[in-house]
Amino acid sequence: MTPSAEAPVLVIGRQGQVASALQRLAPALLRQRPLVMAGRPELDLAAADFAELLAALLRNLQPALVINAAAYTAVDRAESEPELAMAVNGNAVGVMARACAERGIPLFHLSTDYVFDGSGEQPWAPGDATAPLGVYGASKLLGEQLLQQAVREQGLKALVLRVSWVFGQKGVNFVRTMLRLAASAMS
User: Which candidate in 136, 138, 139, 156 is catalytic?
Assistant: First the structure.
């Protein structure tokens, strides 16, 4: 099924750096296509009923594209909250992938270079062997694996983008952290 020209782009995630940037840039990027943001508390990726909530949302909106901008991003805290990290970064991505595949909706998913072990001198290539060193990387890898399963078994059209840092005007990121540390060192 081909979506109508007015079919929205659905962004899963509402308050993070990527979702905030998409909200700001959407009018110029999407022209007439609406952008719909869905996130907590109405759409909680860790909730037991996430699959049902997502299915209802997809059925009602019939989006042209789903962008997963939601993630559990507390890398260090993931070690003490592995179930939550796996639920959000792993299992919820699998739910999204299956739901999008069932409806013929393409899925764009952000992942991380933490799926690798950080060794070596060469840039990573998409097909390189993964070897996450912690829970955060393992949770993101699980999400990628479940998404790829939907690609293979259900014909999902998907794009996975692995990033090392997300920078923005909002939230915690490398640039803002370095500026804060520099300011505190100078005072």
Answer: 136
State the first-to-last Cα distance of the chain, in angstroms, to the nearest integer: 60
Asked if residues 8 and 66 have their Cβ atoms less than 8 Å apart, the reply is: no
Per residue in 166-186, pLDDT tens?
A: 776 676 766 767 777 777 787
Determine contact, residues 16/69, Cβ cutoff 8 Å. yes
Any catalytic annotation for residue 136?
yes
Q: Model pTM greater than 0.90?
A: no
User: Distance (Å, rounded) from C-alpha 145 to C-alpha 164?
Assistant: 19
**pLDDT of 125-163, one tens digit each?**
888 999 999 999 999 999 999 999 999 999 999 999 999
Tokens of 159: 């794009």
- Integer-rounded Cα Rg, in Å, for the chain is 17
Contact 173, 120 (CB under 8 A): no
